[in-house]
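Researcher: Structure prediction, please.
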Amino acid sequence: MLEAKLYEASYRRSGLHGSHAQARALNEAFKKFDLIGSGKIALPEFFRAMERFGLHVRGERYGRPGVGGVDQKVAVALFEKYANGGSSIAFKEFTNAFLKS
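Model: Predicted structure follows.
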């Protein structure tokens, strides 16, 4: 369910619709997640991006404690799924995850 919400939020906020815009929408969404421009998404960036898309992670708010929202363990599990056991999510892993949604 979290994946579906994240998927919907990223596409809705991209403003891009239709099959021809899918690659562009994925690229724009990835850029919004990759806050430091490293070409990969680290866990703190993933949490911040989820917040930006309206999915607050309980216990995290830009490095400050937060309340409510998605359980942190659930968000970490989703990140690890996308990262394929690594410490960051590359663009290919990100697009593969969204194309499966």
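Model: The two ends are 10 Å apart (CA to CA).
Researcher: Thanks, that helps.
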